[in-house]
UniProtKB/TrEMBL annotation:
Its EC number is 6.3.3.2. It comes from Roseovarius pelagicus. This is 5-formyltetrahydrofolate cyclo-ligase. It is an enzyme of class 6 (ligase). Its cofactor is Mg(2+). Pfam families: 5-FTHF_cyc-lig (PF01812). Keywords: ATP-binding, Ligase, Magnesium, Metal-binding, Nucleotide-binding. InterPro entries: FTHF_cligase, FTHF_cligase-like_sf, NagB/RpiA_transferase-like. The lineage of its organism: Bacteria, Pseudomonadati, Pseudomonadota, Alphaproteobacteria, Rhodobacterales.
Length: 185
């Protein structure tokens, strides 16, 4: 294991503990700021995610956005591959996908221009620490090579960290939304 791998693992462990504490303490209305941000992009194809474990849940904002344009969720097709996105609608039939995330039962793939990105930790410079699979980094690199793609991190404020261990392949966020503020980079 390289030094950076060990440093990232320790950073993830600490950040996941902070996220768990924030999740346990959170009340209703956590997605309200995200809904407000997305209102400025009505109709633009976007992808959210189905929250797992203690991730902050973007579902209320996704439901609102779905009334105005296509909304999707990520689908993992294989290790080391970019994500694809299947169209999601409120109330659609879901099935279990990899890592416990729910995905639409019927694939209807499209390319979003906005990604709501889950994360383990973030910093004030647009840095993001994920779970370590590199799925969002590969996906953002691929999408950004084709067109402008907005990456909006969605997290609890307590997930903020200083001095994230980042690599050149880590794709930056354009914006971060917490339950208390919107940060643009």
């Amino acid at each position: 294991m390289t030094d950076l791998t060990a440093i990232k693992a320790a950073a993830r462990k600490a950040a996941l503990a902070r996220r768990r504490d924030a999740h346990d303490a959170a009340g209703a209305g956590r997605a309200s700021l995200l809904s407000g941000v997305l209102a400025g992009y009505r109709g633009v194809p976007l992808a959210g995610y189905m929250a797992i474990r203690t991730e902050i849940d973007p579902l209320p904002a996704m439901e609102e956005a779905a009334a105005h344009g296509p909304v999707g969720v990520p689908v993992i097709t294989g290790e080391g591959l970019p994500l694809v996105f299947s169209r999601w609608e409120p109330g659609c039939v879901l099935k279990d996908g990899p890592f416990g995330a729910r995905i639409p039962e019927v694939d209807d793939l499209f390319e979003p221009e906005i990604l709501i990105v889950p994360l383990v930790a973030f910093d004030r410079n647009g840095g993001r620490l994920g779970y370590g699979g590199g799925f969002y980094d590969r996906t953002l690199e691929k999408l950004r090579a084709r067109r402008a793609t907005l990456a909006i991190g969605f997290a609890y404020a307590m997930q903020e960290a200083n001095d994230l261990p980042l690599e050149p392949t880590d794709q930056p966020l354009d914006m971060l939304v917490t339950e208390t503020e919107v940060i643009t980079f």
